[in-house]
Amino acid sequence: MRHALEVSLRGCEELLIRSEWQAKLVRSEASGEPLRIKLGLDPTAPDLHIGHTVVLNKMRQLQDLGHKVIFLIGDFTAMIGDPSGRNTTRPPLTREQIEENARTYFNQASLVLDAQKTEIRYNSEWCDPLGARGMIELAAKYTLARMMERDDFTKRFKGGLPISVHELLYPLMQGYDSVALKSDLELGGTDQKFNLLVGRELQREYGQEPQCILTMPLLEGLDGVDKMSKSKGNYVGITEAPAQMFGKLMSISDPLMWRYFTLLSFRPMAEIGRLKEECAQGRNPRDAKVMLAQEIVERFHSRAAAEQALADFEARFREGAIPDDIPEVLLAGAPMPVAQLLKQAGLVPSTSEAMRNLAQGGVRIDGARVEDRALKLDPGTYVVQVGKRRFARVTLS
């Protein structure tokens, strides 16, 4: 039980209620009956990034302990739209959009989870049959006063911003998922805490033992500022090519690297601690960053792909190493012409100077020489170099 608790707590933000979870673990160990562990994701976009894998990694760790993990695709709740952390009403998705996005979700999640041991469910299974009568009966089990305890609802109400009635249904429907699945533990990001607690309350209302909740931190994107998000261009997709994935991970700052180690690496924490101490005593942090990038690439591709990605990366930078501390620049306006990006990033004084450097082969992006003056850069994070000494890590949105 002690080992299981250590696994549960690694990297987590909060475990509620810890004593209840310990009791569940003891009971499971004594009876041999696995606990039911739930993670729900709404298919609001077609692809997953490594930020999503923070909770998926935790699911896999608990799965490896022998517990039953349930990967829940919120095809019903996605039509409502999760209001968590938002100051405006989220536009609901159409059924066609949801189905298209859901097709790839489980296949990509299976790159982390053991697909053969994972129960996959869709919450339309029990939400659709509720009907109008069932929805009213469910809504009667929770008060408006409790719902308005949500921080984002409170802020919007006080600020005079609209809150649609259907948004109030979202936490109820997510909580009802826990009832339908008889969940022992539900995982989610820190922004999901309120919704997870609603699940506990509804389980009590339906005569079930309340689930425990385990929240995981929201992973910062490559810029080290905002939550990893495809819309912000600061993400690493789990289906990206090995070289692209490796290059993006090598672009993160040294302080952010340790955050990624804690939340993404499968290495023991003691080993990570020793590595951090070695870097503090003079070892090049780049060595540690290479280890992290290779581990992530190998997880989603192969060992051979990770080795090749490293070889390609080193070949690109053989002419000169990237300084350890380079300026971080945030720009908006993607897709942006490369000359404009160089100017706005402060790497050249004018677009004409940018054009001259491009023509002379003096511009590199992620180590690759760029000579196409018509190139436009999509949202993303790039290490940009002009000449031998001017560098910037540019996050373009």
From TrEMBL:
InterPro entries (alphabetical): aa-tRNA-synth_I_CS, aa-tRNA-synth_Ic, Rossmann-like_a/b/a_fold, S4_RNA-bd, S4_RNA-bd_sf, Tyr-tRNA-ligase, Tyr-tRNA-ligase_bac-type, Tyr-tRNA-ligase_bac_2
GO cellular component: cytosol
Keyword Magnesium: no
UniProt subcellular location: Cytoplasm
SMART domains: S4 (SM00363)
Motif annotated as 'KMSKS' region, chain positions: 227-231
Record key words, sorted: Aminoacyl-tRNA synthetase, ATP-binding, Cytoplasm, Ligase, Nucleotide-binding, Protein biosynthesis, RNA-binding
A molecular-function term among this protein's GO annotations: ATP binding
Residues involved in ATP binding: 230
Gene3D superfamilies: HUPs, RNA-binding S4 domain, Tyrosyl-Transfer RNA Synthetase
A Pfam family recorded for this sequence: S4
Residue ranges of every copy of the RNA-binding S4 domain listed in the record: 336-397
Motif ('HIGH' region): 43-52
EC number(s) recorded for this UniProt protein: 6.1.1.1
GO biological process, one term: tyrosyl-tRNA aminoacylation
UniProt catalytic activity: tRNA(Tyr) + L-tyrosine + ATP = L-tyrosyl-tRNA(Tyr) + AMP + diphosphate + H(+)
Principal EC category: ligase
Highest taxon of source: Bacteria
Function text: Catalyzes the attachment of tyrosine to tRNA(Tyr) in a two-step reaction: tyrosine is first activated by ATP to form Tyr-AMP and then transferred to the acceptor end of tRNA(Tyr).
Similarity comment: family membership: Belongs to the class-I aminoacyl-tRNA synthetase family. TyrS type 2 subfamily.
Subunit details: Homodimer.
NCBIfam families given in the database record: tyrS (TIGR00234)
Protein's recorded name: Tyrosine--tRNA ligase
Organism expressing this protein natively: Quisquiliibacterium transsilvanicum
Gene that encodes it: tyrS
